[in-house]
Amino acid sequence: MGILLNLETSSTNCSVCVAKDGEILVIRELNSANYSHAEKLHIFIEEVMQEASLKMEDLEAVAVSKGPGSYTGLRIGVSAAKGLCYALGIPLISISTLKSMASQVKIQDNEVLIPVLDARRMEVYSSVFDAELNEVRETKAEIIDEHSFQEYINTKHIHFLGSGAEKIKELFPLESITYHCEVVPSAKEMASISSDKFNESDFEDVAYFEPYYLKDFVMQTKKAKA
């Protein structure tokens, strides 16, 4: 038996669920453009535990979305997860934000899933998954233009999903592409993934774990003066 707390704070959606053996018992989430994580995360944790009639000591692990995504949001989620793991003496599990997004859409074998998170301007964080959720292209931070994703556009039916899909839709209004712009990272999809990782004892080092920020991509440098 595994009772796990799942925390998702990588985007505008502050999402928390408690699950038993991969089945969600209670979930709370709020998708706000104002990023409500600092105010809502610990409240949601308390609420899901109370509604599930569980004590914090009943938890066997905490899973957290590791990114990429919002720098501040990831820091809040990971700090909370690590604090709970330290206090309770339980393992920490990390979940790829993009993989949990990809799991929201079911596709055929001849199609691919490309979750894309909006970064800034024409930039996104993205990865590519097949129908079995195997990662067939690593996570990248990239600037979207008319040359992006051509190796898939020319050969596969593509499903773009997430906040970055709107940018891509403007460039590629094609029948061979399906857009799922409404998809946001959620603890709901983390439940089954974290359960599998728990059963495999796939844990992080609580002391040294850091979110997947892709920080180098978002850093800006001042132009040299002429």
Describe this structure in words.
By secondary structure, the chain is an alpha/beta fold. It folds into 2 domains: 3-96 and 185-218, ATPase, nucleotide binding domain (Nucleotidyltransferase, domain 5); 105-180, Nucleotidyltransferase, domain 5, CATH 3.30.420.200. The protein has 7 helices and 10 strands. It has helices at 37-51, 71-88, 97-102, 150-153, 165-171, 187-199, 215-218, and strands at residues 3-8, 13-20, 23-31, 61-65, 92-95, 111-120, 123-129, 135-143, 157-161, 177-180. The strands form 2 sheets. Strands 3-2-1-4-5 form a 5-stranded mixed sheet, sandwiched between helices. Strand 7 (123-129) and strand 8 (135-143) form a beta hairpin. Helix 1 (37-51) packs across helix 2. It is globular, with a radius of gyration of 18 Å. Mean pLDDT is 92; it is low at 217-226.
